[in-house]
Design goal:
This protein is an all-alpha fold and 153 residues long. The protein has one domain. Helix 1 packs across helix 3 and helix 4 crosses helix 7. The radius of gyration is 16 Å and the shape is globular. The chain starts with a helix and ends with a helix. The mean pLDDT is 89.
Length: 153
């Protein structure tokens, strides 16, 4: 049970997300389907909050001199990657989130969706589809490759 909590919380950490939780689950010996489900749930938990509140949080941060640089960096990070999403809208966001590379994922995808003022329902659906896809890719890599390594030992 504790292993599942590790996987769940790892999947909620920005920049680690499902890219880190699925390999962690594989290393901990969690069944692939259970690891996938827990990782997807954990990765999606922050998404509605990001979509609903990130713009207000960033505006508040900009009013505090010590937090202003962080807020500007977060906005720049989202804006820098938003061009990949704007061309294809909902599908573009799903693909952006679904490719498990550094700088992509549910957190950045939600940030981009909020900054682009995407409709909440479309944004949630896009991020969810992307998380499902990224989870499948990471499960294939983690359980396939790590399973092969455990077979050799």
């Amino acid at each position: 049970m504790l292993d599942l909590l590790y996987v769940f919380f790892i999947s909620m950490v920005p920049f680690i997300e499902i890219r880190g939780s699925v390999p962690a689950g594989a290393l901990l010996g969690i069944h692939p389907a259970l690891c996938y489900a827990v990782s997807v749930l954990g990765n999606m938990l922050p998404v509605p909050f990001i979509l609903l509140f990130i713009k207000k949080i960033l505006a508040w941060m900009k009013k505090i001199p010590k937090l202003e640089k962080i807020a500007l960096w977060i906005e720049a990070h989202g804006a820098k990657r938003s061009d990949k999403v704007t061309r294809y809208a909902t599908l573009g966001l799903a693909l952006f989130v679904g490719i498990p590379l550094p700088g992509t994922g549910a957190w950045t995808g939600s940030l981009i969706a909020a900054l682009l003022d995407m409709k909440f329902g479309y944004a949630i659906l896009s991020v969810f589809c992307g998380v499902l896809f990224a989870g499948l890719i990471m499960s294939g890599i983690s359980y396939g490759f790590l399973g092969f390594l455990s077979f050799l030992s």
